[in-house]
Amino acid sequence: YPEGGLVAGGLSQTPTYLTSTNKEEVQNEVKKQIQVFKDNNVDLMICEYYEHVEEAEWHVDAVKKFMPGVPVCASLCINEDSDVHGTPTGECGVRLARAGADVVGINCHYDPFRCLEAVKKMITAVREAGFDKVHFMIQPLAFMTPDASVQGFIDLPEFPFALEPRICTRFEMAKFARMSYDAGIHFIGGCCGFEPYHIRAISEELSKERGDYLPYGVINWGKCLEIHTKPWVRTRATRSYWENLNPGTGRPYSASLSKPGQLGGHCRTRTSEATQKNKTTKLELEELRAFKAKLLV
Fold this sequence. Notes:
About 40% of the residues lie in helices and about 10% in strands. By secondary structure, the chain is α/β, with parallel strands linked by helices. Helix 5 (about 110-130) links the parallel strand 4 and strand 5.
């Protein structure tokens, strides 16, 4: 593969888990996907985007059973506190390791720095539990979400069509990559909102750790600005300038934080989270809006 790339198969949370308490039913469902990956000889499996650690455990176990010998990565879309049922984040990491995951971590729902804090808790708990050979991964959003609640960016009023003002700069992403690597996380990537320049920033920051490989189109912390036509722009051709920049939004009346709808924290039962096959009815929408209005009083 180019640059030594690998091909991964992916599993994620399923409606079956929310409508059934039966482990066998859930594993039979994901086995359909696993068979495709097995037939095509993928290099590894990634079980990602789980709000419930129990479901992630079941999926990891299924991969171990049906694809023995294939490395398994497992990541949850939870915050630094717990999964949606209150299982502490560190404990979630231990449970994934105990289920047989070779790599554990966090993906989606939260910004790079909140995801980093969550994985740090996993690292501490997993190591204390004696899993010395387990590795760690992180694939955050490319949006800043300091105000996101238990359901992450899904509960923000800007989700999903107005998140652009929250996008991370390439320099914030480089900082995140360095902090993650130094924390012991060596599988670093991205999830929703990531653009090619974000991945490039991660690769550029960790070029020495990757055998001095530099991706195409690197900006080297703005060094290219040394030949800019405007002299004041040339003064920005330093790492310190971009590392210490506090970027503006260009929106004089925009809020720095939003008020999450908080619905996610009140929808933790299997029934309330179950995926519907049919379009939401007008009555159901009215009931949901009324429920939300009570929460905001």
